[in-house]
Automatic annotation (TrEMBL):
<dbReference type="Pfam" id="PF00001">
    <property type="entry name" value="7tm_1"/>
</dbReference>
<dbReference type="GO" id="GO:0004930">
    <property type="term" value="F:G protein-coupled receptor activity"/>
</dbReference>
<keyword id="KW-0675">Receptor</keyword>
<dbReference type="GO" id="GO:0005886">
    <property type="term" value="C:plasma membrane"/>
</dbReference>
<keyword id="KW-1133">Transmembrane helix</keyword>
<feature type="transmembrane region" description="Helical">
    <location>
        <begin position="87"/>
        <end position="113"/>
    </location>
</feature>
<feature type="transmembrane region" description="Helical">
    <location>
        <begin position="315"/>
        <end position="338"/>
    </location>
</feature>
<feature type="transmembrane region" description="Helical">
    <location>
        <begin position="159"/>
        <end position="192"/>
    </location>
</feature>
<protein>
    <submittedName>
        <fullName>G_PROTEIN_RECEP_F1_2 domain-containing protein</fullName>
    </submittedName>
</protein>
<keyword id="KW-0472">Membrane</keyword>
<keyword id="KW-0297">G-protein coupled receptor</keyword>
<dbReference type="InterPro" id="IPR040435">
    <property type="entry name" value="Put_GPCR_Chromadorea"/>
</dbReference>
<dbReference type="InterPro" id="IPR017452">
    <property type="entry name" value="GPCR_Rhodpsn_7TM"/>
</dbReference>
<keyword id="KW-0812">Transmembrane</keyword>
<dbReference type="InterPro" id="IPR000276">
    <property type="entry name" value="GPCR_Rhodpsn"/>
</dbReference>
<feature type="transmembrane region" description="Helical">
    <location>
        <begin position="212"/>
        <end position="237"/>
    </location>
</feature>
<feature type="transmembrane region" description="Helical">
    <location>
        <begin position="262"/>
        <end position="285"/>
    </location>
</feature>
Amino acid sequence: MNIIIPEIFQNCSYEFRPKDIKYAQCNISMDADPCELLKGLHKAKDFRTCVFAVIPLILATFAILINITYAILIMELWRRRKLGSSTYYCFLLSRTISSIIALLLLYFVLIAWKLEIFRYLSAAAFILIGSLSFLTLAGTYVAMTILFYLAIMHPLKYLYIVTVTRCILVISILWLLSIAFSLFVGLFGATLFYPETAPIYCSFDHCQLPTAIFIVCLLSVFFIAVIAFYLMMLYFIHNRNRAGLLENDIAARNNVRTMNKLSCNMITFIIGSLPIIIVGIIATINLKKLAVLGLGDKSPCKTFQHGRLFLQVEILAFIAVIVWMLAMIIDPIINFFGDPKFKNVSWRICQKQIPFTDFQNPVVTTAFAMRKDEYGQINKFSVL
């Protein structure tokens, strides 16, 4: 079957596809090359169809399964009173639930992208996902760092201050603040790219650009502050360890090892969050150019004229999403294999080596392993 190639695409007949006939009547600028525009459009569509719509879905499915499995194990061991520290696993469970919610929301965004119905709501959801995940993870790591610091440096304060109820209260406040700020970032962030269809009027010079700079700067400062806070706490703990104050304290050394394990989680947090910050900075720098994609109604001619720009945006989003999801996969794996007790008990339960009767009338496991000396004073503490 012979395909009639429009005159505008005669110089790139090898690139022409039957569906491209709708672009033949598009008005383009005099200095624009229709063949280059067509190539850019095909690259964007092929990337969206073959790469962006497939790899993230596979990784998201894998990440959801891993995080759901880990959450179920935590809840099951919690129910059977086999967790070493309920306070510690409160934050781990919160972080895991945050990952699951973010990954489920990502499905919605990927489907919208695949169906080419990425609009204001889709963009708002995409930005909300990144912000919510970043804030809940960052807040969780700050809380866990404080938890370990108190357990190692001030064990008596930890014993009387830290309780499961207070941890749940802190987690609730953390979630409320994260959701509120993420809604703000999502609603206004999407306005930057879809100003005409957004329910909020926001001019470029007086609203869009200042808002983008404010959001990126705030997230960047918070990102740096979380890392700096962790390094500072780690420095104090290691100084105490070098001074020999923890040499004869098995429980304290166990807490230090757990603190070191948290450093692996911090690395995954940095790896997963840094692309979000970088994409935000790049988007802010090129905001005026990127805002063109959201102006006017979506049409074949608009897609044709800005094909390369669509490709750049999709590549940036793809890189950020892939790295972020890899961090979501690695994080529960680190927590599972980094805790031998949790791993062994979980494995025995999965293998049904522990009968259910072993969990009848269990002894409540406290947040500490405590031992009294001959004077009745507590001298051993372990957060796990």
